Amino acid sequence: MPGWWRDLTDLVLPAECGGCGRPRTTLCAQCRDALCGAAPCRVSPDPRPAGLPVVHAAAPYGDAVRALLLAHKERGALGLAGPLGAGLAGAVRAGLTGSGAGLMDPGAGDGDAPVLLVPVPSARAAVRSRGHDPVRRIALAAAGELRRGGTRARVLCVLRQRRAVADQAGLNSRQRQANLHGALEVTAGGGRLLADGGRVVVVDDLMTTGASLAEAARAIRDVRTESKGRPAVVTAREMPCENAIIAAVVASSPDSFGINRN
User: Fold this and answer.
1) What Cα–Cα distance (Å) separates residue 234 from each residue in 6, 230, 231, 242?
2) Three-state DSSP state, 16
3) pTM of the full predicted structure?
4) For every one of its 262 residues, what pLDDT tens digit does the chain have, with 9 covering 90 and above?
5) Which ranges in the chain belong to alpha helices (H)?
6) By three-state DSSP, how is residue 85 classified?
């Protein structure tokens, strides 16, 4: 009966691994290991955008991990949000503990304030087309994973696009930075929510050039300096962004893992 029931279920709701297509499972053991089997690493694109925080990634973007992210984002495989969120949570933990980055302890100076996960926002048209916001969904899963592990965490969707941007496909690093510069802002009231929390972690599903993460950090940094009565525009040299904001992603381009090589 159990086997017959699985066969009938597959006819109605066919299930296959989002990474390799293996039947009767949304994520097989091999693809789960590709996503979460290795320790998250600090990553850095080359060239590195100005103002980019320290970034940690769960896995290189390729093969099974690439297929999993695309299945979740473009094909609506919502069941993958949990494992992708677990991968992101691991990257967040690596950033908070500051392995190799010289960062502060997660709770240093913040008392009992939760870690704040701030997703990079998707364009409204993309959310409507996909029927969901993949980064927000993964961030919520990551926050749940962090809480189950004893780390207080919440998701703050306080960033929004203030102007339209061109399609990033086909743009090089400098073109992406120019395309995104000044494109994001913190929502009304978002600055107060950011000020009430602890460490801020900008999160995304994928980092390629780092332009999106750098722009998100810039928008948060600006509203924080305004709330403290400082000039709204500061340079990365004036504000040590590594100690104020960190970033975490599920996957990053394989070349960005070169920072960990001897």
Assistant:
1) 58, 9, 7, 14
2) strand
3) 0.82
4) 444 444 444 444 557 899 999 998 889 999 999 999 999 999 999 999 999 999 999 999 999 999 999 999 998 899 999 999 999 999 999 999 974 333 444 444 345 789 999 999 987 878 888 888 999 999 999 999 999 999 999 999 999 987 666 566 666 667 666 666 767 999 999 999 998 778 999 999 999 999 999 999 999 998 877 665 544 444 433 334 444 799 999 999 999 998 664 3
5) 2-12, 29-36, 63-74, 81-97, 124-130, 134-148, 173-180, 190-196, 211-227, 241-244
6) helix
